Amino acid sequence: MRILISFLSALILLVFVSSCIEHEVIPPPSSTVNLTCTFNGYVNGTQMELTQNVNGYLGNTQNVIDINPSPNPSFMVYMTEMLSPNQPLSIRLKLGALNWDAAANNEPTLTMFNNYHTNSAINQQNYGDNINAFGFEVTYTDNNSSIWVSRELYNVPHTVTFSNIKQQSDNTGDYSFFDCNFSCYVYRNNPISGALDSVQIQNAKYSGYFQK
Predict the structure, then answer these.
(1) Of 20, 37, 96, 151, which cross-links 77 as Cys (Cβ 3.0–4.6 Å)?
(2) 165, 127, 133: which is closest to 149 by C-alpha?
(3) Termini Cα distance of the chain
């Protein structure tokens, strides 16, 4: 009888102790988008390479939006760039424009966003001066912080192709990843003479993303 009582007492104690143990709650796994950018190309014959997390370089996105009353279309221009707080050298790409009816949606839907960037790899892209509406644009900032911008000049060789379009989303937003190969001239007005100076960018590849 004593053995039975001792056994039952030990069992009750074990159950009580077990109920007091706080069990660890393991949250469900969450997927995050790997936001990385790289650039490699030749600027006036000299190789230029920008790599994520090297010398402080990171990718950045910003969109230019132009809302117009329906039935006039509204426009969204997408921008991505690699820049560093420690270095003046940077490269920026713009692609525009996605147009939609703002009366139906206050901004392009995810389907519109995906279709627009998927089509960027199918349709020919042209350089444009009015980048707030249509065209592809390259902005290069040199080591002296001078800003050089591409132009819509048909008598000068310039190419651009988008490929490897891939859409991904996480709790920070929706993204369209891409590879962009391009060659072009970029220009600035000479601060002394006022003449138009040019720099040639060749065999350039920017791997990055646009954000919805």
Answers:
(1) 96
(2) 127
(3) 75
